[in-house]
UniProtKB/TrEMBL annotation, chains A, B:
Pyridoxal 5'-phosphate binds at A76, T77, W101, T149, D168, Q193, N235, T236. The keyword Cytoplasm applies. Binds 1 pyridoxal phosphate per subunit. Pathway: Amino-acid biosynthesis; L-serine biosynthesis; L-serine from 3-phospho-D-glycerate: step 2/3; Cofactor biosynthesis; pyridoxine 5'-phosphate biosynthesis; pyridoxine 5'-phosphate from D-erythrose 4-phosphate: step 3/5. Residues 4-346 form the Aminotransferase class V domain. It comes from Campylobacter devanensis. One of its GO terms (biological process) is pyridoxine biosynthetic process. This is Phosphoserine aminotransferase.
Length: 358, 358
């Protein structure tokens, strides 16, 4: 079988060019006689790759040396605990609840026994939009999830609080430019497995002065400062994941950078939302103004038809279209690696499905 | 350049057959049209692979359903903190200090503010041997590191205490059979990056009744019970690492299993130690009786000659032979994936180096 069209929510599609490059040098990196997986993270070869990846990411987000880029493990899930452990200082931590992933973050804040406050939520409408809110100027930090994979909602623009902003960007990492200064970002993080490579590497961009808040009672491996001081090499990092992440960064550059990527993402999403909105068959879940460019959650008129849609799509070489079990329905995840051509093929399939099943 | 002979301490050599199989299906797993990296950890395809890997590992170690096999992240380093967090119950935790990795584990026990005791240490002779000791019957747990990468020491046999035994097996994982019942093993773990695949996956085998000791105040992602209940899928696991680990398990089976692997490891180590012991030029660091089958730490008569050795070895296609910065000298890491032929080539090089530089 040739390659399928992959609309999975995560782990998800990786650019074919990236996969093919990794495949070509899988047993012999740069002709050096070893796989990049097989050598020390402290050796020259890996260290150069590692530092280049950091430099490229800092350049994409236009951030300076007041920020540290860390390649960690444990996913967003571990960050939910690490964040209050590291940057809570005894004031109030403010959270905006936009779905399962912020709920999990709030749960860990509670377990950490900190003074946290949920200042806004869209739970009463099943998280179909991003609520309005203002973080307190003097909060220890304000916490948001910029894209909510399950519901298909996304902040059109990030807030710009006076307190440090913490952003879980797991599912829209590297999908658009972000002005870290304008939004007063203190901590910006995400698992790689949606837009940035394979699962098992967590990208954390943290302001060094924020990381310095940590207390000595925090376990050494869970302090950002431990990894800042060691350039993420305090212990063996997920070297192959970092290598793949670096290839993805090169690929983004080849596409013209984050603005060019974002323009394509807008076109892909617009094609799907227009088709859905102009149809009396499909219905989008997320409210206009809060709609994600990464995950389009929608449904046919019935669960039965949703099931038939998923099955027929698979027969036509399109996978990953089943909605999350919490929401049901359908979902097309159209991360950076999903091409406009793939989205076009999906749109044609959707029209044909409506014609034959509507 | 063809493939080098790789004596790196970790990340380290992976069997070429494993690399080549992963390479062949890198963009198209089992002809399904996607990379194994690109699909959901909750989908049928990955789930089957994941469960097969668990079953194979349980079969190698001959363990039953009283143990859970978890694929975690964060390396041994995170385990140093997770272990006291999860299984300390207010008694005394006993540690045996055999080098840097147990020192780090002890440091985290201290940060966790538990009642711990270092009951034996070989620090006064720079960790050149495994000390004698007996764990208290009623200790919360007894902690050892079964192989000490830096110094090249290894427990010839594991202790068999009455208290639950915790084993950091990061650098001799899957190198020999272990009788979990005889040694009363409660927790057995290791990063994959030496004997079991790429960095970024931590194999944890934990007795379920031990894991059940955890308190509600422990962060959810750091509880073993969280991952036991979710079959390691509480959050996205390092899917590609698990895939590679599974291929390594198949490769071990192809070699005849752990006993066959161990027999080869004994021959490889014997060849090196005999050459060293019969020479008046090379000197082994570890004392007989405590010598590692995984890492042979040795030295020439001078730091200058050590440097010349490393350089000339590299020119002859052998990498990773520089000793750890703490110990200096030389080190040949001869994990499962290093062939007898590679060790033979190294032995010949060593004889020739002695002839020309001795």
């Amino acid at each position: 079988m040739s390659r399928v069209l992959n609309f999975s929510a995560g782990p998800s599609a990786i650019p074919l060019a990236v996969l093919e490059r990794a495949q070509a040098e899988f047993t012999n990196y740069h002709g050096l006689g070893f796989s990049i997986m097989e050598v020390s993270h402290r050796g020259k070869v890996f260290e150069e790759l590692h530092n280049n990846a950091i430099a490229k990411l800092k350049s994409f987000y236009n951030i300076g040396d007041d920020y540290a880029v860390l390649f960690l493990q444990g996913g967003a899930t571990l960050q939910f605990a690490q964040i209050p452990m590291n940057i809570y200082t005894g004031g109030v931590a403010e959270y905006v609840n936009t779905g399962v992933w912020t709920q999990k973050a709030i749960k860990e804040a509670k377990i950490q026994n900190i003074n946290y406050k949920v200042i806004a939520s869209s739970e009463d409408t099943k998280f179909d939009h991003i609520p309005n809110f203002n973080f307190s100027d003097d909060a220890d930090y304000g916490y948001i999830c910029s894209n909510n994979t399950i519901y298909g909602t996304q902040y059109a623009t990030l807030p710009s609080p006076k307190c440090p902003l913490v952003v879980d960007s797991s599912s829209d990492l590297l999908s658009r430019e972000i002005d870290f200064k304008a939004h007063n970002i203190g901590l910006f993080y995400g698992g790689a497995q949606k837009n940035a490579g394979p699962a098992g590497i967590t990208i954390v961009i943290v302001k060094k002065d924020l990381a310095a808040r940590v207390k000595d009672s925090v376990p050494t491996p869970l302090r950002y400062t431990t990894q800042i001081e060691a350039n993420s090499l305090a212990n063996t990092p997920p070297t192959f994941g970092i290598y793949m992440f670096d290839l993805v960064l090169d690929w983004i550059k080849d596409q013209g950078g984050l603005n060019a990527i974002n323009a394509v993402n807008e076109q892909k999403a617009a094609a799907l939302y227009e088709l859905i909105d102009n149809s009396d068959f499909y219905k989008a879940f997320a409210k206009p103004g809060s709609r994600s460019l990464m995950n389009v959650s929608f449904a046919t008129p019935s669960a039965e038809l949703d099931g038939a849609f998923v099955k027929l799509a698979e027969q036509n070489g399109m996978i990953g279209l089943k909605g999350h079990r919490i929401l049901g329905g359908l979902r097309a995840s159209i991360y950076n690696a999903v091409t406009q051509q793939s989205v076009q093929t999906l749109c044609e399939f959707m029209k044909e499905f409506q014609r034959t099943h509507g």
